[in-house]
Amino acid sequence: MSGAEIRLDLKGLAESERHLAFIIDQLEDLEPLMDIFGTTVESDVHDNFLGEHTPEGVPWPPSIRVQEHGGKTLQLSRRLFQSITHRASRNAVEIGTNVVYAGRHNDGFHGTEHVGGHKRTLRKVFGLDLKEPIEVIVPAFTRQGNTPQREFLGVSPGARAELIAQAEDYLTAPAA
């Protein structure tokens, strides 16, 4: 005859209860952990810029500017790099940027785009400085866009392991 046996060892019950109470308390508001996660991923995204690679470590295609004049892709003004930030809440963290063109570089773009009419101030013409700036009206037009993907937002395998370790630390009760 086959059977099943369940055995419950109640040694350390008080310690287990204390640890479960700690975990429940920690899970009430995850904002501190989310803030730690945000800082980690921000740093990881900065590493992607500095190494000019995707979160998985695949090198970005160099920009035309870099090919012709040197430097680092997506880092001439460092505006995009410096704009990376995070916002933590009780149960989530958002990592991103407010730079309008970030998505185009992170995701890439190939296709036709519409450029609305606008004014442009010219200070140079054919490389020569003008005595006074000239304002011109540029009518709306369409153009072909070809921006290769240079993914910078994401979580690398190394950061993923770091996030898991941080979560474990956050849920581990201090010694009594």
Description:
- The structure is a single chain.
- By secondary structure, the protein is α+β, with helices and mostly antiparallel strands.
- Helices cover 39% and strands 23% of the residues.
- It has helices at residues 13-28, 31-51, 64-69, 79-83, 102-107, 157-170, and strands spanning 85-88, 93-96, 109-115, 118-125, 128-138, 141-147.
- The strands form three sheets. Strands 1-2 form a two-stranded antiparallel sheet.
- The longest helix is centred in the first third of the chain and has 21 residues, at 31-51.
- The protein is elongated, with a radius of gyration of 26 Å.
- The two termini are 46 Å apart.
- The model has no long low-confidence stretch (mean pLDDT 92).
Q: Layout of SSEs?
A:
Elements: H1 13-28, H2 31-51, H3 64-69, H4 79-83, E1 85-88, E2 93-96, H5 102-107, E3 109-115, E4 118-125, E5 128-138, E6 141-147, H6 157-170
Antiparallel strand pairs: 1-2, 3-6, 4-5
Helix pairs in contact: 2-6
Descriptive labels:
single chain; 176 residues; alpha+beta; two-stranded antiparallel sheet; 23% strand; elongated
Short description:
The chain is α+β, with helices and mostly antiparallel strands and 176 residues long. The protein has helices at residues 13-28, 31-51, 64-69, 79-83, 102-107, 157-170; strands at 85-88, 93-96, 109-115, 118-125, 128-138, 141-147.
